[in-house]
Amino acid sequence: MGGSYVRDGRAPLPLKESTSRVMSANKGKATRPELALRRVLRKNGIDGFRTNWEEAPGRPDIAFPSRRVAIFLNGCFWHRCPYCNPDLPRTHKAFWKRKFLQNTRRDKAKRRALKQAGWQVLTVWECQLRKSPQRAADRVKALVPERWRLAR
Asked: Which of 40, 71, 85, 140 has the CA that lies 20 to 30 A from 51?
């Protein structure tokens, strides 16, 4: 990695520069868990989805537009998983509480907008996917009709 690292100023200065680098490297699209979910869906014959489809309210991670099915794959840390309850960072607690509250409010608003537009919405949590990829695929399969599945 060449050159020096430049902060964007949106978050408080962490105690270690390495922490800042790690946090800034987090991606919003095509994350490892998203790629894993797509892989398990295809393995189960579920295809024909769009990723990060901007024409749907809230730009779901996976969408079946003609079936009006939206799937969000939420990272446990960033979206505050109710199943594994990740710890808060030890420093800058007020910042993180505010940040996580904004994230969860935005998640609820996205779900509400999709439901009001007639979409079915499913949230798959990162820890659920890690624990049982097949169960995650089965939950999607229950919402997606047979004809959207690949011939096996």
From this structure: 85
